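Re: [help] complex structure
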Amino acid sequence: MANPPQDDPEVGWIKRAQRGDGDAFEELVRRHERRVVGLVSRLIARRADVEDVAQEIFVKAYLAIRTFNFESSFGTWISRVAINHCYDHLRRARASRVAYYADLSQEGERALAAQADDRDRSGERIEERIMARDLAERLLRRAPPEDRVMLTLKELEQMSVSEIAEVLNLRESTVKVRLHRARKRMLEDLKRWRRRP
Amino acid sequence: MHCQAVWDFLLETNQEDWPEPVRAHVAGCRACQAAERDWRRLRQGLAALAAEPPPEPSLGFSARVRRRIEEAARGEAGEVLAERAARRLIYAALLAVLILVVCLVVPSSGPIRTPRSAEAYPLPQEMISAQNYPVFPGQPLDARYDFSFVSERPERGGGR
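Output below.
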């Protein structure tokens, strides 16, 4: 077990929570709820599920808090728990999906078609930005769970490669490779969608 | 230069950082121009998504988490008790089956007779021979002799 910093009050709450103190854990929840809810909202598409999934993550963290050994910060640890839980959630959701393009509404398809036909390279118009945002969100939602996690952490949470490596417990070189593959697959997905009859 | 190699630059670096061969390829390749345009728009869309503030947790979130933890802990304790009871029931059932099997295999009365202990009891014909009455194989026993002593078996446990 690594030596925790003694001047951080969070260390005391963690130690008390490890002994089963509910008040101390509630304090930890208050400190990290925004981070976890934010992360979950970006990883899980359904807004209605966000709070429920975030609660499940904290319950899981409470039951596993004795395994926390101060080798990383509590924020990194709870993020890891959250990402793993969201990853499982995404995989379950993906397994139950019937068709690959099923979640694209007609409105979304029209927006994508309009986007595809648009040859204006300025990219400054607000409509274009909204469509680009919609396009990115939809492609992200359709991406395989591992790609979605990678792209969300890098592009939306704007974490560095080393931070992603720490949170996911991977080597930096692995993160770079997976990130590159995720971007490539996202781009290929867009091209494939355009070739669709 | 191959299009796939250009894509590697395209996905990882900004346009201004591309080396000259990549620029030259993209300038003459419509597929790479389209890919570059798509990726630029995707980056733009991802940046717009990143700029959106994530939702705030609702009021009383931590209190609800705590209630859920207490429920989970109660549920877990109940599960542990149920699991323990089920395990004991299974052990008891296994023990009962084992006892039943032993009762069926082992003879219902008397000690277990090994072949060696069985040899310790002489057969009736050998006992008769021991009384100076020669008996040969296949020869009937003589009715004039008293064979009552044959039924006087030695006491159980007398032999080895």
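Chain A has a mean pLDDT of 83.
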